[in-house]
């Protein structure tokens, strides 16, 4: 029996909400759980619609996407929330990451990339456009501390360091596969090992640790 990823959309723009609904309804492996104009009832929505992934507009009247994100994570921490925004604003990126966002994409993201991002976040990744990834990097201190012996970069293989470097630059799984000439499954295998060696559970944590410890 095929397993579908249930996706819930929060978007106050009716045209964009309809467009996203149509895109997700026709995508293989995805199921549209709902498309709502606001997140004022986010807690109840989680229980009623039971999504796996939420696409969250960051700017909505009544209850902002960041407040909606906090509410969702409070009652359903296992639900992946990807923020959608028009602007690449530093404070918004920071607030969303602090609130537990699992990804951060522009609304102008191409449809194919958006579909890829849903699969990526379900696989444990943190999809971000390269421009937003660069914003995230600016949130971390510029001068990395010297790693201790048990945190040595030597714990990572040369290929793992290459892939970690691409994650830091904001590459998606598919972009890494194309850049290195390997399959997406191989990329996932390398990233799983990177997570294990760095003792992290997400791409955001891996990037943060790489920057703090100068691993790339």
UniProtKB/TrEMBL annotation:
Residues 149-214 form the HTH luxR-type domain. Keywords: DNA-binding, Phosphoprotein, Transcription, Transcription regulation. The modification 4-aspartylphosphate is found at residue 57. Residues 6-122 form the Response regulatory domain. It comes from the Bacteria. The keyword Glycoprotein does not apply. InterPro entries: CheY-like_superfamily, NreC/VraR/RcsB-like_REC, Sig_transdc_resp-reg_C-effctor, Sig_transdc_resp-reg_receiver, Tscrpt_reg_LuxR_C, WalR-like. Coiled coil: none annotated. The keyword Cell membrane does not apply. PROSITE patterns: HTH_LUXR_2, RESPONSE_REGULATORY. This is Response regulator transcription factor. It comes from Hymenobacter duratus.
């Amino acid at each position: 029996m095929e397993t579908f990823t249930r996706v819930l959309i929060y978007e106050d723009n009716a045209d964009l909400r309809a467009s996203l609904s149509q895109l997700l309804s026709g995508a293989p492996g995805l199921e549209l759980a709902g498309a709502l104009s606001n997140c004022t009832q986010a807690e109840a929505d989680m229980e009623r619609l039971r999504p796996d992934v939420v696409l969250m507009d960051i700017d909505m009247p009544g209850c902002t996407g960041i407040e909606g994100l906090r509410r969702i994570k409070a009652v359903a921490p296992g639900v992946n929330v990807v923020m959608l925004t028009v602007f690449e604003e530093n404070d918004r990126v920071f607030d969303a990451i602090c609130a537990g966002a699992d990804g951060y994409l522009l609304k102008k993201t191409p449809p194919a990339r958006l579909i890829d991002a849903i699969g990526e976040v379900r696989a444990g990744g943190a999809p971000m456009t390269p421009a937003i990834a660069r914003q995230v990097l600016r949130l971390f201190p510029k001068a990395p501390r010297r790693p201790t012996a048990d945190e040595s970069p030597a714990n990572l293989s040369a290929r793992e360091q290459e892939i970690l470097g691409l994650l830091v630059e904001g590459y998606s799984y598919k972009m890494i596969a194309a850049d290195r000439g390997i399959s997406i499954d191989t990329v996932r295998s390398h990233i799983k090992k990177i997570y294990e060696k760095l003792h992290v559970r997400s791409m955001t944590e891996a990037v943060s640790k790489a920057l703090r410890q100068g691993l790339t």
